[in-house]
Design a protein that fits this description.
Blueprint lengths: L11 H9 L4 E5 L13 H17 L2 E2 L6 E2 L3 H4 L9 E2 L1 H17 L4 E6 L5 H17 L6 E6 L6 H7 L14 H10 L44 H23 L5
Parallel strand pairs: 1-2, 1-5, 3-4, 5-6
The chain binds zinc ion and manganese (II) ion.
Length: about 260
């Protein structure tokens, strides 16, 4: 048996044996999306992949290749689709991609699957894909499939948020490329953070109603929806700790893995 946790580093017999022994499969769903002038386009996918990698050993799990394209960026939560570098899937394709991945896992014999969503806009498409995959499984006579749908935002404690945002938390949508993601990147991928390029745009103010086409929405020119200033690698470490613990606890509970 190997200690490796990344599917891409396993051979098929190693993978087959571990799935047969009940290893949970862990799938990140990220995005390729502008994250201001200071964070890379792969931020959502990088963070989801790394959080799962850190949680994998405790779960005896295998991390699948991350879905690195996400649902369309929305102006109020990611700046929208007009930025160079934002590259998204039509919803029907994202739903189909996640559904296909889940179907493949079921064919491999997996019955415990965790999906970690790293991009706000993916949430309902992921929910739909899971629902369809469960229906596919039932049609094939598989009735013991459990999929746990994880989202990092649910992991963060009120105490840490209060400490990080003494001026008031702007909400997870406006936190795009802002203090939370920048802190996590400063901790996990310091070489990818352009600390000298932080935008100076104030917190975005949007109309209450969505406007189409989206160029009518007042998105800050930098693409950063709330100031990243005040980010801190130590906040990043604590955010990562809380999220990894959340992934482990919620997955164990859903999969009845106990706390051995
Ligand atoms: Zn992001
Ligand atoms: Mn995003």
């Amino acid at each position: 048996m190997t200690d490796r946790v990344l599917m891409q580093e396993l051979t098929w017999p190693e993978y087959e044996a571990r799935v047969a022994a009940g290893a949970p499969l862990l799938v990140g769903v990220g995005a390729t999306e502008q994250h201001g002038p200071h964070l890379p386009l792969g931020t959502d996918a990088l963070l989801a992949s790394e959080l799962l990698r850190r949680a994998a050993s405790a779960l005896g799990g295998i991390v699948l290749p991350t879905v690195t394209y996400g649902g369309k960026s929305q102006p109020k939560s990611g700046g929208g689709e007009t930025f160079p570098g934002t590259l998204s899937l039509d919803a029907v394709h994202l739903i189909g991609t996640i559904r296909d991945v889940l179907r493949g896992c079921v064919r491999h014999g997996a019955r415990r699957i965790a999906i970690l969503n790293g991009h706000l806009e993916n949430q309902w498409y992921t929910t739909e894909a899971i629902d369809l995959a469960l229906r596919d499984a039932r049609a094939e006579g598989v009735h013991d499939l459990v999929v746990v749908h994880l989202t990092g935002e649910d992991a963060i404690s009120e105490g840490l948020l209060a400490e990080m945002f003494p001026e008031g938390f702007p909400g997870f949508a406006l936190e795009h490329a802002a203090r939370i993601e920048t802190s996590m990147m400063a901790h996990l991928f310091p070489d990818l953070l352009r600390a000298d390029r932080l935008a100076r745009d104030p917190r975005a103010v949007f109309p209450r109603a969505e406007r189409h086409p989206h160029r009518l929405m007042p998105v800050p020119p930098s693409g950063v929806l709330s100031p990243a200033q005040g980010y801190d690698a130590d906040y990043g470490r604590r955010l990562v700790d809380e999220m990894v613990q959340y992934i482990i606890i919620e997955s164990r509970d859903a999969f009845s893995l106990g706390t051995a």
